[in-house]
Hints:
Elements: H1 2-8, H2 14-22, H3 38-42, H4 53-61, H5 65-70, H6 73-76, H7 82-86, H8 93-107, H9 118-132, H10 137-148, H11 150-165, H12 179-204
Helix pairs in contact: 10-11
Amino acid sequence: MVAQRSAAGPAPGAFMDEVIAATPGGASHLELCVQCGTCGGSCPSGPDMEHTPRHLFAMIRAGMKEEVLRSNTPWYCVSCYYCMVRCPQEIHITDIMYTLKRMAIKEGLYRESSAADAPDFSETFIDFVNNYGRSFELGLATRYHLRHHPLTAVRKAGMGLGMVRKGRMDLTPKRINGIEQLQAILAKARELGAEDGAISQGGRQ
């Protein structure tokens, strides 16, 4: 049944092959998309996306690489996996969104997206997780807003102070117990990711 659906559709273009090869796991099923729209209808961030996942996949099939990598859609994905759970073709939608984010950064096209500051937010979050094993909300919000939206930071200061007074936000980051074990896991994940990327790159050459 899967073979029939795959053979019936048009042959994937070069960009589609690139996205499939760059998505970890080896079976993203992207080529099986039937454009049903279940993913977009399931997405909690759908109203903020310039293109629904269904629309983005059609653009990938059409070879619209630059338009896809400039889209804010991957950056608004909150990784809830609801779209993947409901997809009738079992497409690895969330994994593909991560692939598109990596490609947008590599090509530099994320700077032309309406979500151009999203990678910096993600990197700040990852820095805190790497160093402390958890997010540090005050540091994350302060660094992000001061760098990208300084006026907003001033307006939100009152709300932040209120959260601190009520014990809902810490003034300093706190490191989790066993941080060395988490850092070892993250280092191994980065190593495996680099190996997977090298294998994918070799397969395209």
